[in-house]
Amino acid sequence: MIKNIAFDFGGVIFDLAYERAVETFKKIGLADADQRLDRYHQRGFFEDLESGRITADAFRRQLEPLCHRPLTYEEVQGAWLGYVGNPVDERKLQYLEELRSRGYRTFLLSNTNPYVQAWAESARFSAAGRPLSSYLEKCYCSYEVGLMKPDPAIFRYMLDDAQLQAGETLFLDDSPANIAVAEQLGIQTLLVEKNGDWREAVEERLSIS
Question: What are 105's strand-pairing partners?
């Protein structure tokens, strides 16, 4: 029986716009943004940021020589927010609230960074002026826990920290690699279409669990 539901962030809760992110990074001077950014798993010092190995300020300082100019925090955050393709679908957020009201424990499990998360935890995140964390029990962010999907350790960290049983937990992600690792750990999974509406699919899984 499913008692807990964990959600990926980009491509699941908010629409992910990779091509737009490439353009926003190019606008601040990163000419090879299409070589440095990734749809699922960042590399180089971009990965260092999302894994928590460097701070937001250290990332900005490493980015400046590649852009050939000084950068402000706001410019770098604006570039990262290029990944946010559309306003967050309020229907999804309302559904998260509904799940909690029905007794399900809900979580975020995401490869993300402090620039994106600062937006997510601000009034800008939703049309209702509420932060992401107000819709979920807890957010497990890669840069905060020092682990990244698809490393099995980040899944184990969430299970242990929240005292969840793997077999009672449903995990939603748009990455087949992340889904595969979760399944190996005994977590129930749902591979969803990037930027799709997964509410009906979740209901179907809950009805047969």
Answer: 4
Q: Is 184 helix (H, G, I), strand (E, B) or coil?
A: helix
The CATH class that applies to domain 18-83 reads mainly alpha
Residue 163: pLDDT above 90?
A: yes
Q: Which two tokens stand for residue 176?
A: 């087949």
Distance CA 37, CA 81 (A): 13
Q: pTM for the complete prediction?
A: 0.96
Q: What is the mean pLDDT of residues 21-38?
A: 95
Alpha-carbon span 55 to 122, nearest angstrom: 19
The residue assigned the tokens 């994106």 is: 116
Domain(s) of CATH 1.10.150.240: residues in the chain: 18-83
Annotated active-site residue 8? The verdict is yes
- Which SS3 state, helix, strand or coil, does residue 98 take? helix
Q: Within 10 A of 52 (CB to CB), how many other CB atoms are there?
A: 17
CATH code at 4-15+87-208: 3.40.50.1000
Which candidate in 8, 48, 173, 174 is catalytic?
Answer: 8
